[in-house]
């Protein structure tokens, strides 16, 4: 198992120590307090507990206390330039909106909505629990996630920022409706990392699948050491490893990611699983 280094082992020494490592498991569980994130609650099996906010520091040997009854609300973050939620132009004079297509409600988001153009990358199982500030689950909430592929590209848009026209594609976007426990699951790939941004996954929470009542828009993050370890292990992610933007130097995450960190388990060879709790005020 690869675990985040102790405070005596710096990030660069940690990457050096990874040289020659071809596999292993990664685990980080974290949530704390900052002004721009989401409370993450999970145990090492990936199960989430509504109403309980448990923090395990990403640095080995450090931990904080457990708080019950009241969960810290997830502050909002920008949806970025490529949300495809009906709010902007796709660069071709049309509104980008995958939510208007009922096929967007799907668990496996690796391909276009028609099943074509499946994106290559490390399999990534993502479980999200949606709760209110009292910790009660929100069944029926619709969770929309979107992120870049391993090359840092987003579907649905033609943009110079992307370096090409991807407006005819719809991969790595999808919606799931929360079950009685307020939980949804997605099968996707490990997103890449591109210049200027740390690893991130965009998400939006709606009251239901009519998408008429937006409750929250935010972004998920991963501990710097953990994501560097994964990119170092994973085939096809060399560019992501070299595009080395830490959370602290990211223009979205620079004010802290304590409430935005995913809990990640598994390894880049066999596949990864991650859990997250979105707390809606």
Walk me through the structure.
This protein is mainly β. It has a single domain (11-61, 69-220, 240-280), classed as Sandwich (Protocatechuate 3,4-Dioxygenase, subunit A), CATH 2.60.130.10. The protein is 8% helix and 25% strand. The chain contains three helices and 14 strands. The chain has helices at residues 11-18, 224-233, 238-242; strands spanning 52-53, 67-68, 85-89, 95-97, 123-132, 142-146, 158-159, 164-165, 173-177, 183-189, 201-206, 214-220, 263-267, 271-280. The chain has a four-stranded mixed β-sheet, with no helix packed on it. Strand 13 and strand 14 (271-280) form a beta hairpin. Helix 1 (11-18) runs parallel beside helix 2. The protein is globular. Residues 1-68 have low confidence and may be disordered.
